[in-house]
Amino acid sequence: MKRVDLYDDEMSRAWKEDVDTLLVFAGLFSAAVTAFVIESYKWLNPSFNNVNNDLLRQIAMKQLDIVVSSSQTNFVPQAASVRINAVWFLSLIFSLSTVLLGILCKQWLREHRRDTPCSSSKEALELRQLRYDSLERWGVPALLASLPLILQAALVLFFYGVLDLLWSLNITVAAVCTAASVISVSIPFLTTILPAYYLLKYRAIAKFEDDVLLCPYKSSQSWLFYKLTTIVLQLFFHIKVTFQDWASSDLYLLRTHTENRLHSIFLLRGLRWIVKTFGDSMAMANHMFYCFQTLPVDVAAHASGNPDEPSRDAVYYEFFRHSAWDPDIGRFVAELFLRQINCQNANAPEYSFWVLASMDFIGDGQRPQLPTEFLQQIIGSIRCFCADNRITLLDVDPLMIVCKKLWSHPDPAIRHQSIVLIDDFQAWISRTPEELQRDFIPSFASSIKDIIYSEDERAPMSALILSEKGREFIKFLDRHLAAQEIDVDVYSLQEMPPMSWQEGKGKVARLSGLSTDFFDKASFDSRIRVTNEEPLDVSDTYTVA
């Protein structure tokens, strides 16, 4: 019964709001008409000044010995005065009648929705249906729908009286006011007719139209006009479809339009509107995600604004990547990104590695540390990315930030597994054409220099500095920089770089306990070696399918 009560409450509330609005307008309108009527009714009686003038004229004639007829002509008001008073008084009567009927309707609605204790829900439903059927049978909804029509008729009569008065006084003023009045009266007239016309026209052809738009000018008087029109048309034509109200007609047009289509254009537009309007709301993000899960991939892709996305993961990624600052959503976006780069046929979106670079791998006490399995996924995915030669210049900086976090991770196993990325980077650079190396090598060297600058004697120290692989990679970059005569310091985004490349090499040697000229030697000094640094195969790390 809760749903039934909600429906009845909404129906009664809408009626009461309409009646309240009409009562306010009818009261103000009646006051305005009364002000005109107070002056106009005098035009129906002889004027006191005219009577005095007649008496003075008779006295003057007697003094001049002019024979005065004793018969007096009866006063006859002008035809315009009769018309004006007739329509204005009718207008006032219609307006006050609207107030009277509106008050009565509110009383009837109050009794209709009166809460009556019943012995069971079954009896409550029976009582509700009895009241509703009686309300329909006695014509209360029709009377409520006619109240605006009565008030509009009063307004039209008032306009007619005003225009009649103006045409008898001044043609120019009357013409201007007539044009304004015609426009004002045409608007409610057309908005009453158009919904019925549209519904009668399009309900038969809605399924064949590419786009169907509902007429929004719905009102109680337009519904009454539609019902009267269908009654007349049924005398000449056979009309099968009848509707209970405007809502049922809207639903009919929607279902008729979409029954022969793969996807409703209104569903696609609605989802797109929700994403554009509420896409930045964290409270709505989860709801929209669960909604997308129930939709076909092409519908979800269109809703997210990327209709050409082939996979569901790519759709989710594009939708959530702007909300990756949230820890939970950021983790989910990172997983989606890893799935994409592990797909051989997928191209990672630009700047997508920043999703991983912005994550907190360790945790700060409030957010949990990323699990080892997830970090292994990251390592394996980066190795596959390098093996497929998909690195771009825009990927270098975020990749190095990710590696920095992996190489400095508190877990020795993660540091050991992630340092093998050095081999992948070095092998990828060696496969790169020489003209591209001039772009990539300075970018790698600049990122490595930033990692070195941020390191000190604290524990754990980056595996880039402690491991032989890291020192070999630094020397590998240094050798290419020297061979191609590249000054890596000019590639810094800062006007005054905090550390030069030469100073970075010296810091690595100092932190590793090596001689200051270590990187200038022809071969590496093998005095310091980190045990258990056998390179891992790509298959040793878990990757996302």
UniProtKB/TrEMBL annotation:
A Pfam family: DUF6535
Keyword Kinase: no
Domain of life: Eukaryota
Domain DUF6535: start-end pairs: 2-168
InterPro entries: DUF6535
Keywords: Membrane, Transmembrane, Transmembrane helix
Keyword Transmembrane assigned: yes
Segments passing through the bilayer: 21-38, 86-105, 138-163, 169-200
Protein name according to UniProt: DUF6535 domain-containing protein
